[in-house]
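Please, structure for the following, as tokens.
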Amino acid sequence: MILEHLGLDKISGSLVVLENVDNVFNEEMVEIRLEDGSVRAGRIVMIEGRRVVIQVFEGTRGVSMVNTRTRMTGRPMELKLSPEIVGRVFDGLGRPKDGLGEIYPLTRRDINGSAINPVQRVYPRNFVQTGISSIDTLSTLIRGQKLPIFSGSGMRHNELAMQIVRQASVADDERFAIVFAAMGVKNDVAEQFRTSFEESNVMSKVVMFLNLSNDPIIERIITPRCALTAAEYLAFDLGMNVLVIMTDMTAYCEALREFSSSKGEIPGRKGFPGYLYSDLASLYERAGIIQGSRGSVTQLPILTMPNDDITHPIPDLTGFITEGQIVLDRALEAKGVYPPISVLPSLSRLMKDGIGEGYTRKDHKAVSNQLFACYSKVQEARSLASVVGEDELSEQDRLLLGFGRDFEAQFLTQSQTENRTVTQSLDLGCRLLAQLPDELLDRLKREEIEEYIEPFREKEANNG
């Protein structure tokens, strides 16, 4: 069996072509030894008969067509894994970049992984607390869920991601870790991420993968797979509840488009490859809970919508695969609301089964439904006010406008250092609803109003 090939048949960008190659497989790792003795890593990305196309991670600058030696390793790309990966920083290919030395692996795993077998899946229950009222109360993140954040270019999604990393938690008696993967970020943003986690003393529970904007695109395609492989090890081998935050999936998809174009594949919608849906599904479907395991993998991918277009292929396909979405609103951000989460288009489809008594609080579902309903009426009142003026509105509509202003200023708005428990968030929601008369609380039963809302009215009356 031939293991090493001398010379190359073609070089095209970061791709090299070899002819007359046998006994290889797709995604197989390759070592490319140059004339000066240096070695570059590559991966087989296409096989056509005996012709193979290899993606060179470090690029092909300085590669000789004649004297380059290519050796097939006979294995896919694998990630070194052990409990010591927690608290470490890696590059996009899973190589340590924090100066703390190599990882001594207890095991190695193929980064390509696979979606969780539906037969072995356990339905997600319980929740992950982010410390952010608009998420924990209205679009609750459930363990084992995949819940993307739809943002826009220039918006403060990086700050939101850092705040979630600093504040996220599960029940006190359970082990928790965060896998944070950044793709295509600038050096100063990557440093901001690291500094934020270290200064807030949460680095001890974080595994970081950083792919910079000047790194090769093939590394950007591999980064989320390395992150998910690490998360699966922590969850299903070590029994930890793992939250995976991946930002920015748009950078990943654009790298995939560039890579597909370099291979000469026929483009699909907006130039993205036709297999974009299945490729994203191969990542998102690695979230979940496996029968017999105490751990879970929860995904919070962040993507920036090009031109704020939610119908763009990236958010559109992501919405088909995932279980809801959290949408950031540019108009709210312009009003100074942080985090600028747009309540009405945001939802968590698994929320109903992971909240309530035994998980959060028994009034959670009722309070959440009423806040949604009232804020929806606020939008209608604002539309009417823009036509006839606020002075011409009915008393109820003016009450709704006041509720809307307080809701955005007190409930949606919180500082980047404010960590609210779900109990504090629900109490705040009840206190805001207590401003409204009973006839506007049409999603609550009479007994629920008496139990959840009346105590706050009485407290306000006593304070007054």
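Residues 364-463 form a domain with the Bovine Mitochondrial F1-ATPase, ATP Synthase Beta Chain; Chain D, domain3 fold (CATH 1.10.1140). The chain has three domains: 4-76, 79-353, 364-463.
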